[in-house]
Amino acid sequence: MIGNDWDAFCTTTYLYQIIYTGLDGAISFFWSFRGLLSDLNYLLCKRVVEVDRRYTVDPAFGGPEYETIISMGPLCSIDDLEVIAKANELCNRYGIDTISTGSTIAFAMECYEKGLITRSDTGGLDLTWGNGDALIRLVGMIARREGIGEILSLGTRSAAKHWHAEEFALHVKGLEVAMHEPRWKKGLSLLYAVASRGGTHMDAPADDWLLDESAIIPEIGLDTSLEDRDPHTSNRGKVQTCVAAQNLYALYDCLVVCKYAVYPLGFSFKTLKEIFHTVTGWNASAEELISAARRGIELTRIYLAREGITREQDKLPLRLHEGLPSGPSKGDCVTSEELERMKNDYYSMRGWDQANGWPTKETLRKLGIEWSAEHLPATIG
Predict the structure, then answer these.
(1) Which residues contact 271 (CB under 8 A, 6 or more apart)?
(2) In a domain, 81, yes or no
(3) Enclosing domain of residue 107
(4) How far out from the chain centre does Cα 323 lie?
(5) Same-domain check for residues 362 and 268
């Protein structure tokens, strides 16, 4: 058992032991693990998990995937897959996100361990690391906003302010950080920081995908060298690659395409264009498609600017600027100075101003959405 959620986030070998070694045993031991196959889901991306032991898990609510297993497992120092499966079922019943729920509960556990909150704050719950019963109780309390669940239901950022524990809170713009290690994947560090929603893993692929042959798409700007694609790299070429990859993911969203249909299953950009042409009759060029995706990114950023988001909020939790404590990437992280340099390059490539990270009027004009400039604060040029 590891000592705390931060150790869990850092200890990759432990995570893989839990997920893969433990999961294989769990499948044969007490899980019914099978894909949901239907006319609408040929990818088999969801699992049916049925447990009838200490906890009963209803297979109708699916089984935990990678993000859930990490956030409700090692992040909370829990290695009981039965507990994780039950917590996942409850989140799906209540309609609440498993990443944010698990991460927020892990944060509460760390605050409890550090003495920032006590049983009088938790309603008598013992929130020591590894307490699976407490994890399951808290899921329900968060969903119903009962007791400490009222505070936790607002997420890590709000709870951190309430308990004066901001230094332990792992979030970007209020969204809990996804379960992908950004410190040795320096492109992911940048993408977490600048993502409109916060620390999401769904705005662009992680650095390791950029090393795959399928990630070489010159017609949309994914044509940088292997050196620039190296996860440990943070140079201008890496930033260019991140911008192009983020544009591609925005295009997937514009086309309402499942990202798992195109990655990692080898669904090529050429095929995507052909399908788009077949469905719409529009033989759109790569430039036209990417411009549509860019318009979505720019409009989203304008909304954020209108709501007061500036360069200052494009940042990482302080802990993600600490070097990895062990493993082959020991010591790796993006320093705050390194991140600022990457942001400078990113804003320049996007056509955003350096002071605030907002789209310039010229950028909006080139994309044909100059009308949206009226929603920008008056300080932008």
Answers:
(1) none
(2) yes
(3) 5-169
(4) 20
(5) yes
- How far apart CA 333 and CA 316 sit, in angstroms, is 11
The end-to-end CA distance of the chain, in Å, is 54
- Say what the pLDDT of residue 33 is: 41
**What is the per-residue pLDDT across 225-253, written as a single tens digit (0 to 9) for each?**
878 888 999 999 999 999 999 999 999 99
pTM for the full predicted model: 0.89
As given in the structure block, the two tokens for residue 335 are 């320093």
Same domain, yes or no: 121 and 202: no
Q: Which two tokens stand for residue 8?
A: 């869990």
Is residue 80 within 8 Å of residue 23, measured between CB atoms? no
Predicted confidence at residue 115, as pLDDT, reads 97
* Residue 210 near residue 229 (C-beta atoms within 8 A): yes
Contact 296, 203 (CB under 8 A): no
> In the beta sheet, which residues pair with residue 52?
56
What's the Rg (C-alpha) of the chain?
22
d(CA 322, CA 229): 22
Same domain, 164 and 207: no
In this structure, the answer to whether residues 96 and 196 fall within a common structural domain is no
**Listed residues 107, 138, 169: the one ending a domain:** 169
Rounded to whole angstroms, how far apart are CA atoms 186 and 332?
Answer: 9
pLDDT tens for each residue of 72-86: 999 999 999 999 999
